[in-house]
Amino acid sequence: MSASESSLFPLVALQAVSNAHNEWVALSLLPSADAGDVWQSALALLKTDDVLGALLPLDCILPVPNPAALELSQLQDLPPNRIVLRVPATAVADVAVQKKLAGYAEAGYRIMIDGLAGMAATLCGARSLSFDAASSLPPTLALIGQPGPHLATGMASEQRIGECAQAGFAWFSGDFALHPPRDLNANDGTSRKRLLALLGLLARDADSRELEVLLKQDPALSYHLLKLVNSAAFALSSPIHSFAQAINVLGRRQLQRWLQLLLYARQQDDGKANPLLPLAALRAAQMEALGKALDWDRDQLDMAFVTGVFSLLDVLLDMPMAEIVAALSLDLDVVMALLDRGGALGELLKLVEQPNRAGLEQVGIDAETYWAGQLQAHQWAIQVSRNI
């Protein structure tokens, strides 16, 4: 790849957008400050390696900071039914911009106004509103003026999502998954001990019969395991009815990986999906992808995967990570990463949690490789959340 082509790969975050049931419905591209031309960078990334195909069936929200410079030719090869053009409210007061965006809306592209634009939103052909609703809500008229779905950003809790849903929002983004309501997330003592025991068995590669005994005490986990094995992801000719059959289909290594993820699969008391599930899958897959880029061996990649999955156990179990680690027989490298973000695994986990160019350069990974790994990880997280 030439130097000019490599420059098209800035650090870009793919921020998940969920519906009121905590299911992913779209991804927002959020290039970092050092991405240069935000629009050109995001546009270039969307046109590489069949990105939209990898992210099916989710929509992609593309930032357009300067809609006056937008040309329809730039959108070639991007299907209108998958793209939402997100433009700042401050940029749509200009009549020429309104006419231009209205033309793109007629071509099938969805226009989302970021902020309050009043009548200008209608003149642009906008269908939806994006609004930072962390602490305040927009006027009711701003929401009913367009068909939606409207996006509420800055969501730090599911309670706030509920309030925004009542106000008319249908899409939500933020770090709410990391702040679950304690009354919905809390496990009773027996359930928590069972989870820790299962994690301990997985960590020491216990005999299948030991796992089966413990799984039979957790009907929800057993149900999700059989549902997974019988899903379209495995395309089996005959259904699987027992844990022993599931082991034969998955194999020990894959069984351990899926069980680690299935710990997050329990629905909440209100019937909603646990938003931690796709996030845990994403972290695990990103950790493994970065490890592959560094030519790690199979055992190291397994530890990278485990580190990613287990990095959210303190949130899931509402326990200090030190207590969780003390109850498990984990490799020292995994323990260092989980407790102190130390060692090689810790460096990768920090990059997964907050990517930055300096950190990537320090571990020897370029922006193109990071983007490819991030894309692959999101694709897998999407599949996991839809198969479990």
Describe the fold and architecture.
The chain is 51% helix and 11% strand. Strands 1-2-3-4-5-6-7-8 form an eight-stranded mixed β-sheet. Residues 1-6 have low confidence and may be disordered. It has helices spanning 3-6, 38-46, 51-54, 95-106, 119-123, 140-144, 158-167, 182-185, 189-203, 208-216, 219-229, 243-250, 252-262, 276-293, 298-310, 313-317, 321-326, 332-340, 343-353, 357-363, 367-387; strands at residues 12-18, 24-31, 59-63, 83-88, 110-114, 128-132, 151-153, 171-172. It is built from 21 helices and eight strands. Helix 11 packs across helix 12. The protein is an alpha/beta fold and 388 residues long.
What value does the average pLDDT take? 86
Listing every helix as H and every strand as E from the N terminus to the C terminus, the arrangement reads HEEHHEEHEHEHEHEHHHHHHHHHHHHHH
Rg (CA only): 22 Å
| Anisotropy-based shape | globular
In CATH's first tier, which class of the largest domain applies? Mainly Alpha
Instruction: Name the beta content range.
Output: 5-15%
Distance between the termini: 38 Å
Which spans of ≥5 residues are poorly predicted at pLDDT below 50?
1-6
Helix content: 40-55%
Number of helices: 21
Query: What strand order characterises the main sheet?
Result: 1-2-3-4-5-6-7-8
CATH architecture grouping of the largest domain = Orthogonal Bundle
Tally the beta strands. 8
